[in-house]
Amino acid sequence: MAYYPEPIAKLIESYAKLPGIGQKTATRLAFYTIGMSDDDVNQFAANLLSAKRDLHFCSVCGNLTDADPCNICSDESRDRTTIFVVEESKDVLAMEKIREYSGLYHVLHGTISPMNGVSPDDINVKTLITRLMDSQVAEVIIATNATSDGEATAMYLARIIKPAGIKVTRLARGLAVGSDIEYADEVTLSKAVENRQEI
């Protein structure tokens, strides 16, 4: 690697620690940052510190928030009979963008992964069970990712929730809108057939 003065080398190193940022991108970001005005750099640093210091997990749903409970849990207009279970807070943001769901959420902060030593006790499952005992929830929508760990987590949650008489559903899997059948893999096609709908 080319020699850089220590301050910029450390900045490059910091950017390179971010997911999806390689050495070239980290270098480009570092030099861009150096070219920013002092006010912009100070604001950027203040925003980083504020996000780290002022955000925490909602005590009800586990979503990232600056208030407790979060604005979704405290919104009385939301449908309290459904809980949409996701792996991470960024999944809540993705769902809120489409404006098709008006119920509550629950963030697991990961998935069960026996291969990696992650058990149900290591993710946010106990709080979900407590919520189900203390509320009028009629349906839990499980929206974990379509990975082996996501599927294992979905099956585990379904197994412990169904005996309480609560409907458990899973997001449909299959062909994406605008995709061609010839380019789809076998698992995607299989799920598309399995989740077919009457028209």
Can you walk through the features of this model?
This protein is of the alpha/beta class. It folds into 2 domains: 49 residues, RecR Domain 1 (Helicase, Ruva Protein, domain 3, Orthogonal Bundle); 107 residues, 3-Layer(aba) Sandwich (Dna Topoisomerase Vi A Subunit, Chain: A, domain 2), CATH 3.40.1360.10. It is built from 7 helices and 6 strands, in the order αααβββαβαβαβα. A 4-stranded parallel beta sheet has the order 4-3-5-6. It has a two-stranded antiparallel ribbon with strand order 1-2. Strand 5, helix 6 and strand 6 form a beta-alpha-beta unit. The longest helix has 17 residues. The chain starts with 5 loop residues before the first helix and ends in a 5-residue tail after the last helix. 18% of the residues are buried. The mean pLDDT is 91. InterPro entries: DNA_Rcmb_RecR (IPR000093), Rcmb_RecR (IPR023627), Rcmb_RecR_Znf (IPR015967), TOPRIM_dom (IPR006171), TOPRIM_RecR (IPR034137). Belongs to the RecR family. One of its GO terms (biological process) is DNA repair. One of its GO terms (molecular function) is zinc ion binding. It comes from Pseudolactococcus reticulitermitis.
